[in-house]
Amino acid sequence: EFLTFFLSIRGLRSIPSLSKFRRLRYLWINDNKIQDLTFLIKNYSLTELYLNNNELTDVSGALRHLCSLRILFLHNNELKRLGKTVKELKGMISLKTLNLFQNPLAYDPDYRLYVIYSLPSVQLLDRKLVTPRERESALHLCNPKRAWVMQSIAFGRRVDTSLGPTVGSSRCTQLARGPIMPSVLKWFGNVQVMDLLCSFCRVPFEDPEDAVLVRAMTRSLMEFSSVDWNKVATCQERRLKDKAEEPLEKLTVQFR
């Protein structure tokens, strides 16, 4: 049974169903005039698919079953709806290489970061390697709440990217608030108690230890009690005394 088909540069406008080639893995259909992909409905084993330089305007319902796909070329077509196109590709957990450039959807201002966030398995997008910095930026843009949580807990390396609101973002939500910062120290005797001011800011913790302290302050409580043992009667003294003992003074201190 055929594992590879070359149907490039043949002026094809349509292709009959390839369902009988269930083990087909490599398919070149680039540089034709294809507008419909229903002929791929049974080809679950495809790992490389080259559809570039055609006349595709929509891929909805035609590619989502290709879970084994590793390489997908869709550049230089007429794909206009970024969200709809990316949604179709989300099930491709093995997808490593993706080309979508030279489509109308690629002119969306958030295009590259949106694709990087939505398709985390992709390592090479439009012939450019996806960098850790881009993944970081994509998270801040498309899921600012998660980005804030990851940054505020101060585990590992602190991200230097500002957590301020994204201006002009049409697809992703904006971050409105920042982390809570430790503030006031109050002293009572020799017991130190730290309070937190619930003031919001738009910058991350300057010192990772501040974030760790915030977590400790809000999640733990310790209590210590002590008495003056010099005032506690011994067993012998208790037997010799006729009067009742006065209750001992106990000092209790709570720490967060």
Automatic annotation (TrEMBL):
UniProt xrefs under PROSITE patterns: LRR
InterPro entries: Leu-rich_rpt, LRC72, LRR_dom_sf
Pfam family for this entry, one: LRR_9
Protein name (record): LRC72 protein
The organism of origin for this protein: Sterrhoptilus dennistouni
